[in-house]
Design a protein that fits this description.
Largest sheet: 2 strands, antiparallel
Shape: elongated
Distance between the termini: 7 Å
Helix content: 55-70%
Number of domains: 1
Order of helices and strands: HHHHEEHHH
Structural class: mainly alpha
Number of strands: 2
Length: 241
């Protein structure tokens, strides 16, 4: 009988809460420009926080699940590394593709209006920002910040999957991976939506003033929601026996 008071289950619930919080934090690192970025009036990638964070996270989930399926006895560190790598590859691919379109399609330099100099390269930014915009393209700092966010999101998603497969496998051997994957996707979307209210459309990454202003509140909210998600996951497991 699965019990919420079982020390192992309490640990699993806490790990799911931590994982969901990592996903929420990851969203704040990812350079999301929304519609303004699509028109080269803001830096970042021209889509929403939910789509971009969930997209990179789902790729990380695929790589993590592939690693776990191919090597069931693999240490958790390898599963998390696989999740992080998958997400980072997806985010890097999107960033490069956007850069090519901005540079050769739109014809704008990569520059941010949030900082005078790029924190990574030290290159001047303010000289190249067009009037009436918040910058354009995917500057180096945005690209690097996106990779950091992708890694955190991939680790969070992989850890949720790893924990849930461990819970469900003794109960529903043949379907454990599928149920764990569906639940992980749900947690991904929940923790991608929460930051979207604080971010309010666009965020450039860890150098954006909005990052320090909204991250603490979003992280606390995400931890509470993810904790409830962990409890539900364990309750579902309890209903299987």
């Amino acid at each position: 009988m699965v019990s919420l008071l079982d020390p192992t289950m309490l640990t699993n619930i806490f790990l799911i809460a931590i994982s969901g919080t990592l996903i929420c934090i990851a969203v704040h690192f990812i350079p999301v420009g929304g519609a303004p970025a699509a028109m080269a009036q803001a830096t970042g990638i021209g889509t929403g926080t939910v789509e971009l964070a969930a997209g990179s996270g789902l790729v990380g989930l695929l790589t993590a699940s592939h690693m776990y399926a191919g090597e069931p006895n693999a240490p958790v560190s390898l599963v998390l590394a696989a999740g992080a790598m998958g997400s980072m590859i997806m985010m890097a691919s999107v960033g490069i593709a956007c850069g090519i379109m901005y540079a050769y399609g739109v014809g704008v330099p990569f520059a941010s209006a949030q900082v005078k100099r790029d924190p990574i390269t030290g290159a001047r930014q303010d000289l190249y920002v067009s009037k009436g915009t918040q910058g354009h393209g995917v500057p180096t700092v945005c690209f690097v910040s996106g990779l950091i966010g992708a890694a955190l999101g991939g680790i969070g998603g992989a850890l949720i999957y790893y924990v849930l497969v461990g819970i469900y496998t003794p109960l529903i051997t043949t379907s454990a991976a599928a149920v764990a994957g569906v639940f992980t996707v749900a947690v991904f979307y929940v923790n991608s939506v929460i930051p979207s209210y604080g971010v309010a459309g666009t965020i450039e990454g860890f150098h954006d003033p909005k990052f320090r202003r909204v991250l603490p509140k979003d992280a606390v909210t995400s931890f509470v929601v993810s904790l409830l998600s962990g409890i539900i996951a364990v309750m579902i497991a309890g209903g299987m026996v």
